[in-house]
Amino acid sequence: QVQLVESGGGLVQAGGSLRLSCAASGRSFSNYAMGWFRQAPGKEREFVAAISLNGGRTSYADSVKGRFTISRDNAKNTWYLQMNSLKPEDTAVYYCAAGPYLSTKRLEYSYWGQGTQVTVSS
Questions:
Q1: Integer Cα distance of 20 and 99 in angstroms
Q2: CB under 8 Å to 24, separation ≥6 — which residues?
Q3: Cα separation of 9 and 93, whole Å?
Q4: Which of 18, 48, 54, 86 is the right S-S partner for 36, CB 3.0 to 4.6 Å?
């Protein structure tokens, strides 16, 4: 069975850093684009970052540009979201996802993890 499992979430003070990981199993995702989305209470799930199949292209939401970095390790079937200079507005459940091509649209992604909570205190 295909599984995507996020880890690395937690509580951090404003200005701090966290690195989220998404470990996939059940199949290789080398031919998939990977993405990160987040959802705060009472809000819709929103795009955060995505990376192309070979890592040559990345895309970021305006709210996280310059602070977050997405990367992938195809040998480990894992992708990451390095989050620096965290703000209280970054508080949300973060979800990793995989799809056939790089996209900012959540409907383009076929596989999803269960989510990991990130809480940034002020």
A1: 19
A2: 2, 3, 4, 5, 77, 78, 98, 111
A3: 9
A4: 48
* Residue 100 to residue 91: CA distance in whole angstroms: 28
Tens of pLDDT, residues 37-63 = 999 999 999 999 999 998 889 999 999
Looking only at the bridges linking them, the beta strands covering 10-13 and 116-121 are parallel
* CA nearest neighbour of 117 among 46, 35, 39: 39
Sequence-ordered alpha helix ranges (H) in 16-119: none
Burial 57-73 (b: 16+ CB within 10 A, else e): eebbbeebeeebbbebe
Split at pLDDT 50, 70, 90, the class of 71 is: very high
Cα 108 from Cα 47, distance rounded (Å): 11
The secondary structure of the chain in percent helix, strand, coil, rounded to multiples of 5, reads 5, 50, 45
Q: Among 33, 21, 43, which Cα is nearest to 90's?
A: 43
81-116 b/e (C-beta count within 10 Å ≥ 16 → b): bebeebeeebbbbbbbbbbeebbeebeebebbbebb
